[in-house]
Design a protein that fits this description.
With about 90 residues, the protein is mostly beta strands. A hairpin with a 2-residue loop joins strand 4 and strand 5. The chain is elongated, with a radius of gyration of 13 Å.
Length: about 90
């Protein structure tokens, strides 16, 4: 088995005129997630955007705290998955 790490990165949400911050982690570190599962709530003014896990695996790192300010391209979390070796 090979372990692979996938980063959750803040995409360009199109809210250039509003500050963006972490609202709420929806999944705890160490939890198993599937690609597409909502893991993080991001706030931009009065808008709320849920961000999804980038891959199946375990959420091994959360790199930002709740209420922390964010910027486009920032690393937010790491999901680690195990894949069969070829």
């Amino acid at each position: 088995m090979t372990r692979r790490r996938y980063e959750l990165i803040l995409p360009d949400l199109g809210f250039d005129d509003r500050p963006i911050s972490v609202g709420l982690w929806l999944v705890e570190r160490g939890s198993r997630v599937a690609a597409g599962d909502q893991v993080l709530e991001v706030l931009a003014g009065s808008a709320v955007v849920d961000l999804a896990a980038p891959a199946d695996g375990v959420l091994v790192e959360t790199l930002v705290d709740e209420d922390a300010p964010l910027r486009t391209g920032q690393r937010l979390a790491v999901v680690e998955s195990e894949q069969d070796d070829p």
